[in-house]
Amino acid sequence: MEKQMETINWKVEGMSCANCALSVTKYLEKEGMKNVKVNPIDGDVHFEVVELNDNTQKNLTKGIESLGYTVVNEKMAAQGHTTKKTMNRYLRYMWWCLPFTLLLMLHMVPGLHIHWLMNPWVQFALSLPVYLIGMSFFGKSAWKSIGSGAPNMNVLITIGATAAFFYSLAGTLLGQADQYLFYETAAAIITLVFLGNYLEDMSIQSTQRELNKLARSQKVMANMIAFDDKHQEIIFPVENIILKSGDLILIKNGEQVPADSKILWGTASVNESIITGESMPVEKKQKDKLIGGSLLIEGTVKAQVMASADQSVLANIINLVKKAQGDKPPVQKMADRISAIFVPIVIGIAVLTFIGNYIALAGSSEHVFRDALMRSIAVLVIACPCAMGLATPAAIAVGLGRAARNGILFRNARSLEAFKNISQVVFDKTGTLTTGEFNISAFKAIGVEEEEFKRIAYSLEKFSNHPIAKSISKEWLTSNTLRWSRIEEAKGKGMYGLSKDGDEYLAGSYSTASAHTSEDHHNIYILRNNQLIGWIDVKDEIREEARAVVNYLHSRNVKTILLSGDRQAKCDQMAKELGIDTVIAEKSPEEKLQIIESLNRETPTAMVGDGINDAPALAKATIGISLSEASQVAMQTADVVLMNHGLKNLPLALGLGKHTLITIRQNLFWAFAYNIVAIPVAAFGLLTPTIGALVMGLSDVVLAVNSVRLFVKKTT
């Protein structure tokens, strides 16, 4: 039997660009890891392996650290064993280098003549600490990246700074410092790249702000309930990360819910905006579920923990978004291919620049070698592979972060790109366009007592997850149930039961009872031994936001389709009320799947469903969009999950998908345009290496700022 793949989630620090992420990816793939996803934005690394034993984990950790990065122990971090926060390392390096660099550049200030600064040995002494600091970071990283087969941008910085430094040192040793003195160029390159990396870090961190708010809310204090030897209740504080399923907790007015739990006693008003994006409080009572991370506005409850902190709804949301951030939509593939060979190409261009300028300047310049070298160094330091690598993850981090804040979960980044072509949206009816909260409006028992009919209906429907079945079992709850020797649910058809007494029961739609009655307008028909014994009618309300959502889609020229297993007349009535274009009714889950396949062949199609009966169709649609009432099924089948009655967020999901892709394209355009323009400008000597280093550092900031606009950009 084939062994199950295990998904491993690590945090790796020290990655400064997309080429760094590529180095880690190549190493893990070489070691046999599958589906490797490395996010250079926040250092999250995900991969799959059959079995990760201690020896394999140790070897992988050593391998990654040999590349110049650090694997962080996520479990220790989760338990609060975090290291003391220190100054950003790029900022620290920059402050160490800045005083020496400023002194070296004083002689360039017009009207300022400090003769001792012109001494080449003084300049050597001032630039040496800067060069050594730079090589301890850029040089080490460059060497290891070359060894891994994925040279990063630090190779370019190392070559450029080293060429300027040793060119100047050669002039100093030869006694021709007036022609060779470029120590300040080497120092300025290193200092300004450290500054650029710091600005890049700060810009990228802002893209994580919303997700970090969710993450911080995971760790809270809980009031745990225990009992002493006299069975007296004891309440003591603990961190929620040690709670496990089955523990009892007390949650007081104003406190945060420490873990997913079920109320055993008390009532409360709960703000679930951190999960749903909806600020209006929700009333909760006994047996209702509480989502970890939500806030008790009013009331006090005792509850039983249903899931540990790392398995909670909130933790799953965060993990889902983090994994999606590591994904790459197809639009990024070309940029990845170019990034992988970018550094060798730039080195080649720099060599050609030196040769070309040396030949071109041979008859027109006194310092041919110097000028040609400076231009080739400028090519090295102005080129920016990071811009191409960061174009996608920066935009995805912001887009998915904003989506998560509003209760929209993208399971993968590919869905973002798929939104651009969606021209029709298919809606399920029950639980999607309607609230899914049914009430029994009428019923009739035929040939049996009403109480016996209710008992039969409850005994069958309590085993079903369908919203109508849940409403019946809720209203007709009884402890005097039928005893079954066999009970099963046929999706889209109904419940079948064989009692201990040998009687056969069936609860389903009109198709199950069409041979026994011509009344086709009831919701549930119940048969015993192939004889109709009654029917049940339920009423469901249309979601108040449904009409606005349909109108929005029409305003964007998106066709709307209602696809349901319900009766044609009821579907026609709803479609007329909401203004839906096309109705396809009375279809089984298998037929829905075939219809979605057919619609997909015509044009890219999104489907919105409840993730239960519609699971196959959701998986087959170009984009499957599910509400989260059946969260586990929804998250496994749909590409996008709208949390807690989130149909109102469908326009935002569509808008964010399209605008995130627009932002990615803008970023990629800037990244390519920057390098296409900047490299020739440097090659023709129109800017110095110092200016090139500054412009290179700022190029990534432009991408980050453009990406951050997604936080506030109007998308609907």
Task: Give a verbal description of the structure.
The protein is an alpha+beta fold and 716 residues long. It is built from 25 helices and 26 strands. It has a 7-stranded mixed sheet with strand order 14-26-25-24-15-22-23, sandwiched between helices. Strands 6-5-7-13-8-11 form a 6-stranded antiparallel sheet, with no helix packed on it. Strands 16-21-20-19-18-17 form a 6-stranded antiparallel sheet. A hairpin with a 5-residue loop joins strand 5 and strand 6. Helix 11 runs antiparallel to helix 14, helix 13 packs antiparallel against helix 24 and helix 17 crosses helix 18. The longest helix has 34 residues. The radius of gyration is 32 Å and the shape is elongated. It starts with 5 loop residues before the first strand and ends in an 8-residue tail after the last helix. About 2% of the residues have low confidence.
What's the structural blueprint in terms of helices and strands?
Blueprint: E1 6-13, H1 18-30, E2 34-38, E3 44-49, H2 54-66, E4 70-72, H3 74-78, H4 89-104, H5 120-148, H6 153-174, H7 177-180, H8 183-206, H9 209-216, E5 221-227, E6 233-239, E7 248-251, E8 261-265, E9 268-271, H10 273-276, E10 282-284, E11 289-290, E12 295-299, E13 301-305, H11 313-326, H12 333-360, H13 368-382, H14 385-405, E14 408-410, H15 414-418, E15 424-427, H16 429-433, E16 439-445, H17 450-461, H18 467-475, E17 484-490, E18 494-499, E19 504-508, E20 524-528, E21 531-539, H19 546-555, E22 559-563, H20 568-578, E23 582-584, H21 589-602, E24 605-609, H22 615-620, E25 623-627, H23 631-637, E26 640-642, H24 650-683, H25 689-708
Parallel strand pairs: 15-22, 15-24, 22-23, 24-25, 25-26
Antiparallel strand pairs: 1-3, 1-4, 2-3, 5-6, 5-7, 7-13, 8-11, 8-13, 9-10, 9-12, 14-26, 16-21, 17-18, 18-19, 19-20, 20-21
Helix pairs in contact: 4-5, 4-8, 5-6, 5-8, 6-8, 6-13, 8-25, 9-14, 11-14, 12-13, 12-14, 13-24, 13-25, 14-24, 14-25, 17-18, 24-25
